[in-house]
Each structure stands twice: as structure tokens, then as C-alpha cells.
Design goal:
914 residues; alpha/beta; Arc Repressor Mutant, subunit A; Rossmann fold; three-stranded antiparallel beta sheet; 63% helix; 7% strand; elongated; DNA binding; DNA-binding
Length: 914
């Protein structure tokens, strides 16, 4: 006679489909505990705690347990089920397949291990059919309530996994009605929202998919004050772009094809010989082809290279990478090769979390990603050969380099083909000017045209500026313009005697002096702006003018060819023009303060959106005339920080040079969450080293502690653990001296994390424990929850499992209450670890599965590896070697995709004996 037990609904036993009467609720609770721990010994103390923990204990608890066992044996023994008394407790012997909870778990594990989507879907469907309602229906104990909540979340995660598989199988239309109803009942579930959007899109309803995204975005903002997660935002963007890969699979991993070329020069003319030389250099060989285009500033090197690249796009189907190396930028230092490589990795689709910490490893990853691909790498405005060499691909590719210097090292060591641009000859210069102004206008005044071209000295930049000036007054004779230019030429020196540009400053001044007064003021002010370009809002604060007026003035400067709008609302100058603008600008501390405050206060607003629970910083009010931006959501804040990142680094340098020390470290504070999310610890360390120096200038002891604390955190991210501990130790000492209790708590919390990285759990616990106590004393509930998890994890690592479980369960309750999903995932993983090491392997798999689902919802694929690795250990402990292998292979695939060589090597060792 076979007895089947139900836990996923009413707790009951059935023989041949007919229920057996168990009795009152307390007895069913005891049976539920024994069945959950089927074939395991459950101690009397555990039974008492799990059945009576939140209600009055019986006068004799052990006698009550013994009475319950007598009653259960009376019901179950005739059906062939035994409950055996052991030295420490009781054991119910049963085939796990006869208990719906354990059968559910087994089917889910088999489904996850299946290599075929059809087989996986069938197994997960069979598992879900076992559910008849809420687990342990009608029973109300604290332990069962907690387990019920976990199992319901587990079922939800399995349903989501099943839908992913069914969508991959193309069942969009069949799923759509149930998906819509399910999403309506779970409006804050972003993974479910993504599945519904995907199904709608593949059913020919992209507008409905986009509308659902907006509904979810608004609800998240209204109810939680957050933005959609990165995976959901990316799906939204791909639907907007009608990404063809969306019609193939749910989570496609298509190779990213970067298209970074600057725009094709609109009025390019001449240079036929040089274009032909580049054609010849390209050839058909499978080798790295390097063409180094040299020449004076303003000679048209970038225009030539961009024109040639656009002509040959068909030769580079795998993408085009572009970077302005700023080799001669008057506003700062040339771009480091490391920064350029990081930009290329972003363009190639490498997630920030997958970027190696070591710069050499980043370079190796870049070369690996472009190896074997037909790509163009355009390195514009290089300072010298040393800046270029780290950016060269390791295999066949075409590299275009422009520089004002002769790159002899590149020619000698790497076989580059040198192409030096000379001034345009008379015919080419005439054709370029005619392209701008029309041949008829030049033919009407041939002698004047000749003098104009003489003043331009054959430089395409100068000709374009002259043409812009002449184009603003089409009715003026060219002779009137030449008279103005002649007067200015008599008054000005050469811009750079080394480059022999005798008349270029005269050309610039001619256009500058012809500007209306306010446009001239804006032009000069732009010479003070930090960074490589400037957006309209920043320009408005720089000049203390309304945005509409600044836009009008920038339009006038654009018409005069003195600025270019390279992206909507973003403006930049040729570096020679910018140098001239700097000459025209008077020392204006107020303008500098306004532009610095604009960036600091706007970045602060972005940070408050990215991490609203972080304790805010008192940064004062912006300077008069400065109008910072605000942000509606996380996407807008992140987009602004990304677009302005290089400018923000330049702002910190400018602020330090001007003695604005508070702004220096305030700016570092505003970028901290952005750095952490991108995994950009290289820049974070540099920014915080500057921040520490600035705080020391101010004499503000709390700022000195805070900057050292954040520098220590950044050093930890970069693998500089010894330096990190030194800075954090200094921060803790200062915080103790000045009575900064929150600072002490954060310092201990971070030091615990670093000792964890160093695999010293005892030292970590020595810091995690006081951190938790201080967070509790301060009433910082979210940090208190993180403290519980941190303490629990290190206790678990030290074998203190019961204490660890108590701390982690407290953290889980708080995480769910505050909707801290990252903390919830971390805590579930810790509880899974505890369950594994206390012999509760089925429970461990449930908890790990929930953690994994949350990590995938959040897009934290970097953290999936550790959880998958632990899942593999649990399967191996159960003797499920095939499932252990499946979990470890998933972890290995993630490591390889994220270029984590050390982690991949460790997981290969786990797989080698299997």
C-alpha cells in the first residue's frame, strides 16, 4: 500500500487517492515538520520550537511531542509508514517521491539540469502541477509561515523560469493571456514585466510592449522610488530599436557591433592622392594595417580619415571603434591608453562587472574581443607612439591614427604606413572655398579670392572659418571681408611659431571680432570650460545666462564655425580654436565657480536618485547664476553621468587647481555609486586620492575620515587590500577621535568586507559585530539589515550555524520589508550555505534557487557564479553528480563570458574529477 503525502496545499495523507484523517491542527503541524525533514532525524527541541514557538508551550513539551507521535503512528502505521524513535528525536521514513514537496524539488532540479528546452519545460510543468494551493494551508506557526513564504517565492521563480523556456520555444501567443493576468497581479515584478513585453513584441504588438514598460516604470517610481532594473531597461531600448535578435531568443547574446565613427565630413573636397594612398595601404592581407596620418593642426587629418573610413564601411562589417586621444588638448592631459581601452570595452558590450581590474588584463581582453573580426580602429589626435601601441589589436585589423607629430616609433616597430598631410595646393583650396560659397561668387572677385586663400595658408580649418564668416553676409563683397582680415593680420603674432601658422590667429580673430557682443562673451567663456565638450545646461551656468539665450549664442558660434554641435545639445571646439578662446577669456573666478558648482550639484542630484537611502551630504547651495539639473529617474541620472564622466574628472582637476577643496571631495562622493555599479575602481581610486588631499586642506576631520573610508573601499575594489586597510584604519581612528558614530560603523563594515576578501573570517567578524551594534544604536535599519547578513555570513563560515541562521533570518525579514532585493539575494545565499552545512540539502537548493532568481532579475550576473558554485557542492553532497556538473558548467560559462580567469580555473578544478 502506497501512501502519498501533500504539503503543497492542505497537509494530508492519501491512500489510493482517498485522504486519511490526521486530526487537529497541532498534529498536522507535527506531521508537516517530519515530512519536510523526511528521512532525517528531527530532535524533540526542534519539534517543540517549530510547532509551539509562537504560542504557549504545553506544561510538559516532551510529553506533548510523545503524545503526537503516538497519535500519528496510530494513523500511519496501518498504511505502512513508520515513525522511528532515535536517541535525539524522531524520523519518518518515506520515499521522497511520495511527498509532493520533495517530488516538486526533484522535478525542478531535473528541469534545470536538462540540456533540452522541450524536456526542461515538461519537467517544470509537471512540478508546478503538484501545487494545490498555499503550502501547509490552515496551519499557522512561525516556522511554517517562514517556510511557506520561501516556498511560494520558489514556485514563483520556477514559473518565471518555465516562461523563459516557453518563450525560447516560440510560444508567445499561447502564453500571452496568462502572462497578462499574472503581470497584473504582480505589477512590481520586473522579470515578469520583461517576459510580457517580449511576448507582446513577438505577437506584433510593440506599442503595447512599450506602453507596459511605461506603466511599470511609473509604478516603480511611485511606490518604491526606484527605476527599472538594467535588464528591463535594455529590453525596452532593444524594442525601441526593433532589434532583430529579439525575434530569436529571450536573452540573446549577440556580438555587439560598435559604430563609433564621427560623422562624414559634409563638404569634404580634394585629397585624392592621400585617399588613394590609404586605399593602397589597406590591401587584402590578413595583417594589422596601420596608417599614421600626420600634419599640422587644422590640416584636416580627422576629416581625411573619417572620409576614407565612410567610403570603406563595407570592409569593416564587424564594427568601427573611435577615440579622440586628446593628444594636444589645451584643457588637460592626453587620454591614457587605459581610459581608451575601457571605452572600447564598453563599446564592445563588456559589462562593467566583467572588466578585469588589472590594466594589462583589460588590454588583453580588448585584443581578444577584436581578434578575428573585420574591424576598423580609429585613433584620433594621438600624442605619440607610446600612447598608441597599447591600443593596437593583436590580429588582423585596420588601424587609422592621426597625430600632429611624426609617429616614427610606430613606423619602425609596427610597420605603420606614414602619410603626412601638407597644406592644400591652390586648386584644392580654391575648390574647398567654392564648395562653401559657390564658384560664381569667387569668380566675381578673383583677386580678392586669391588674397583670402593666401590668408588661410592652405589650412582646411581656416578656409572653413573664413567661408562661415562670408556665408553669414552673402550680399557683402568679399573685398570688405579681406579688408577686415588684413587689419587684424597686422596686429597679431603667430599662433605657434613652431607650426608656422602665421595667419591662423588672424583668421580666428577676424571671426571673433565679427561676433555680436554676447556671442563673443560666450565664446571666450567656453575657453574656461573643463573637459572635452560642454552641454547646454553647463554652458548656461558657466555664462550665468538663460539657457534659451545661450542656445541662440551657440547657434551663432556654430554658424561661424567656431564651435561644432557633435551631438544634440553638446558642443565642442577644435583644440586650436579653444586655445584661442582661452586667450580671449579674462581670469573669471566667478565663472569657474559657477561651472564647477553646476557639475557638483547636478552629480549630487544624480547620486540621490541612484542611491536614495544613502545618508545625504551637506554640499551647500550653488553659486549665484548656477542652475543645476534634477533627474526624474535612475535612467536619466545614469545617462547624464555617463555622458559627462570625462568632464567630471576634468572638473575635479580644475577645482583642485582653483583651491575649491570642498568641491573636490564632494564630487568624489557624488560619483561613488556610479563607480561601484560600473566596477570602475581605477578612476575611483584616483578621484578619492584627490579627495583625501582636498579634505586634508579643509581641516574638516569628518571629511578626512569619510574620504579615507571611501578611498579604502575603492582600493579594495582594485585589489589593493593592504592600502585599503591602512586608509580604513585611519578613517576609524579619526571617527573615534571626533565622535563620528556613523563613520565608525561604516569603517568597521568596510573593514569586515576586506578581511572577507583576505579569507580571514575571524578578523572580519571582529569588525562586522561592532558595525551591526552601531547601526542598531543609530536606528539605521537598512544598514542594520546588511550588518545582520554580514555577521551571519562570517559566523556561518566559522561553523557557528545556529547563531548565523538567527542573524540571517532577521536580515531576510528586514530586506523584504524594505524591498532591498540585492540584500535579500545575498541573505538567501547565506541561508542556503547554512542549510547545506547543517545537512538540510533540499532546503539549501530552494534557498539558492531563490537567490539565483533574484540575481538574474537584478542583472547581477557577476554574482551568479558564487551561488551556482555552491549549488554544485550541494548536488554533489546529495550524490547528484550530473546536476553538480550542470551547475558548475553554468558558472564556468559565466566566468568565461565575464573574462574571470582565476574563477574559471577554480571551477575547472571542480569539474575535472567528474
Amino acid at each position: 500500500m502506497t501512501v502519498r503525502f501533500r504539503l503543497l496545499g492542505d497537509v494530508e495523507a492519501q491512500v489510493h487517492g482517498s485522504p486519511i484523517a490526521i486530526g487537529y491542527a497541532q498534529l498536522r503541524s507535527v506531521l508537516a515538520v517530519l515530512l519536510v525533514e523526511a528521512n532525517q532525524v528531527v530532535s524533540v527541541d526542534q519539534l517543540v520550537d517549530r510547532v509551539w514557538s509562537d504560542r504557549p508551550l504545553p506544561r510538559k513539551p516532551r510529553a506533548a511531542v510523545q503524545h503526537s507521535m503516538t497519535m500519528l503512528r496510530g494513523v500511519l502505521t496501518p498504511a505502512g509508514v513508520t515513525i522511528t524513535r532515535r536517541s535525539t528525536g524522531y524520523q519518518l521514513a518515506v520515499d521522497p517521491e511520495d511527498v509532493d514537496l520533495h517530488r516538486f524539488r526533484r522535478l525542478v532540479e531535473d528541469g534545470r539540469a536538462a540540456g533540452d528546452d522541450g524536456r526542461a519545460a515538461a519537467l517544470l510543468e509537471e512540478a508546478l502541477k503538484l501545487w494545490g494551493g498555499e503550502p501547509f494551508a490552515g496551519l499557522d506557526t512561525a516556522w511554517l509561515d517562514s517556510l511557506r513564504a520561501t516556498l511560494i517565492q520558489h514556485r514563483h521563480a520556477v514559473r518565471l523560469e518555465l516562461v523563459d523556456i516557453q518563450l525560447r520555444l516560440g510560444l508567445h501567443a499561447a502564453l500571452l493571456p496568462d502572462l497578462a493576468a499574472w503581470a497584473a497581479g504582480n505589477p512590481l515584478d520586473e522579470r515578469l514585466a520583461g517576459q510580457l513585453m517580449f511576448a507582446l513584441y513577438n505577437c506584433g504588438r510593440p506599442a503595447d510592449a512599450l506602453e507596459h514598460y511605461q506603466e511599470v516604470r511609473k509604478r516603480l517610481a511611485d511606490e518604491l522610488g526606484t527605476d527599472p532594473s538594467p535588464p528591463l531597461r535594455q529590453l525596452h531600448e532593444r524594442i525601441l530599436a526593433t532589434d532583430p535578435a529579439l525575434t530569436a531568443v529571450v536573452r540573446p547574446h549577440a556580438t555587439v557591433v560598435p559604430q563609433q565613427l564621427p560623422a562624414r565630413p559634409r563638404l569634404f573636397t580634394g585629397r585624392s592622392r592621400e585617399l588613394a594612398d590609404l586605399d593602397t595601404a589597406l590591401g587584402d592581407d590578413d595583417a594589422v594595417v596601420i596608417s599614421a596620418v600626420g600634419g599640422l593642426g587644422g590640416m584636416g587629418k580627422t576629416w581625411l580619415a573619417a572620409q576614407w573610413a565612410h567610403r570603406h564601411l563595407d570592409r569593416f562589417p564587424d564594427g568601427q571603434l573611435y577615440v579622440n586621444l586628446r593628444g594636444f588638448d589645451p584643457g588637460g592631459q592626453p587620454m591614457s591608453a587605459a581610459t581608451a581601452i575601457r571605452g572600447f570595452l564598453d563599446a564592445l558590450g563588456v559589462a562593467p562587472s566583467a572588466v578585469p581590474v588589472d590594466v594589462d588584463a583589460q588590454a588583453g581582453l580588448y585584443r581578444s574581443l577584436v581578434a578575428g573580426r573585420k574591424m576598423l580602429v580609429f585613433l584620433d589626435n594621438a600624442a605619440d607612439s607610446a600612447q598608441v601601441v597599447p591600443l593596437l589589436p593583436g590580429g588582423p585589423a585596420c588601424v587609422l591614427v592621426t597625430s600632429r607629430r611624426q609617429l616614427n616609433g610606430l613606423v619602425a616597430a609596427h610597420g605603420a604606413r606614414a602619410l603626412n598631410l601638407e597644406r592644400l595646393n591652390d586648386d584644392e583650396a580654391h575648390r574647398l572655398l567654392a564648395t562653401h560659397l559657390g564658384e560664381d561668387r569667387l569668380a566675381a572677385e578673383p583677386e580678392v579670392t586669391e588674397e583670402l586663400l593666401t590668408c588661410c595658408a592652405g589650412l582646411p580649418l581656416a578656409i572653413s572659418i573664413v567661408a562661415a564668416r562670408a556665408g553669414t553676409h552673402p550680399a557683402f563683397p568679399l573685398s570688405a571681408l579681406v579688408d577686415e582680415l588684413r587689419e587684424q593680420n597686422d596686429l597679431l603674432d603667430a599662433l605657434d611659431a613652431g607650426e608656422d601658422l602665421v595667419s591662423l590667429r588672424a583668421v580666428f580673430s577676424w571671426s571673433y571680432n565679427a561676433l555680436p557682443a554676447e556671442a563673443a562673451t560666450v565664446f571666450a567663456a567656453l575657453g574656461l570650460a573643463p573637459g572635452t565638450d560642454i552641454a547646454l545646461p553647463a554652458a548656461a551656468s558657466l555664462t550665468a545666462l538663460p539657457a534659451a539665450r545661450v542656445r541662440a549664442r551657440l547657434r551663432e558660434l556654430e554658424q561661424a564655425n567656431l564651435v561644432g554641435q557633435h551631438a544634440p545639445g553638446r558642443y565642442r571646439m577644435h583644440d586650436l580654436v579653444r586655445l584661442y578662446a582661452g586667450e580671449r577669456a579674462h581670469h573669471d573666478p566667478a565663472a569657474v565657480r559657477r561651472v564647477v558648482d553646476f557639475y557638483v550639484h547636478t552629480a549630487f542630484a544624480a547620486e540621490r536618485v541612484l542611491d536614495p537611502l544613502r545618508e545625504p551630504l551637506a554640499i551647500g547651495v550653488p553659486a549665484p547664476g548656477c542652475v543645476p539639473l534634477g533627474f526624474e529617474d535612475e535612467t536619466a541620472a545614469t545617462d547624464w553621468l555617463t555622458a559627462e564622466f570625462t568632464n567630471l574628472l576634468a572638473v575635479q582637476e580644475l577645482a583642485a587647481g582653483q583651491g575649491l577643496h570642498d568641491q573636490v571631495w564632494h564630487l568624489g562622493w557624488t560619483l561613488n555609486t556610479f563607480f561601484r555599479r560600473r566596477g570602475n575602481y581605477h578612476d575611483a581610486v584616483a578621484v578619492w586620492r584627490a579627495g583625501v588631499a582636498a579634505a586634508d586642506h579643509t581641516g574638516d576631520r569628518i571629511a578626512q575620515a569619510q574620504t579615507r573610508r571611501l578611498l579604502g573601499d575603492a582600493c579594495s575594489g582594485l585589489g589593493l587590500q593592504s592600502e585599503a586597510l591602512r586608509h580604513l584604519g585611519d578613517a576609524l581612528r579619526i571617527s573615534e577621535q571626533v565622535g563620528d558614530v556613523p563613520g565608525q560603523a561604516h569603517a568597521h563594515h568596510l573593514m569586515a568586507s576586506i578581511w572577507e576578501d583576505l579569507e580571514d573570517d575571524r578578523r572580519a567578524l571582529e569588525h562586522a559585530t561592532p558595525a551591526l551594534r552601531l547601526f542598531q544604536d543609530l536606528g539605521m535599519t537598512v544598514w542594520e539589515a546588511w550588518g545582520y547578513t554580514q555577521v551571519g555570513w562570517h559566523q556561518a563560515r566559522l561553523g557557528l550555524y545556529e547563531q548565523a541562521r538567527t542573524h540571517c533570518e532577521a536580515a531576510l525579514v528586514m530586506a523584504r520589508r524594505h524591498r532591498e532585493r540585492e540584500l535579500e539575494a545575498t541573505t538567501l545565499d547565506s541561508l542556503g550555505y547554512i542549510a547545506h552545512h547543517t545537512g538540510h540539502h533540499a532546503e539549501a537548493l530552494d534557498l539558492y534557487g531563490l537567490a539565483l532568481g533574484l540575481l538574474r532579475d537584478l542583472g547581477y550576473d557577476h554574482h551568479e557564479v558564487a551561488t551556482l558554485e555552491r549549488i554544485g557542492h550541494t548536488h554533489r553532497a546529495l550524490g547528484h553528480h550530473d546536476r553538480a556538473e550542470a551547475a558548475w558548467r553554468q558558472a564556468l560559462d559565466l566566468c568565461l563570458a565575464q573574462h574571470r580567469a582565476e574563477d574559471a580555473a577554480r571551477i575547472r578544478q571542480l569539474l575535472s574529477p567528474l
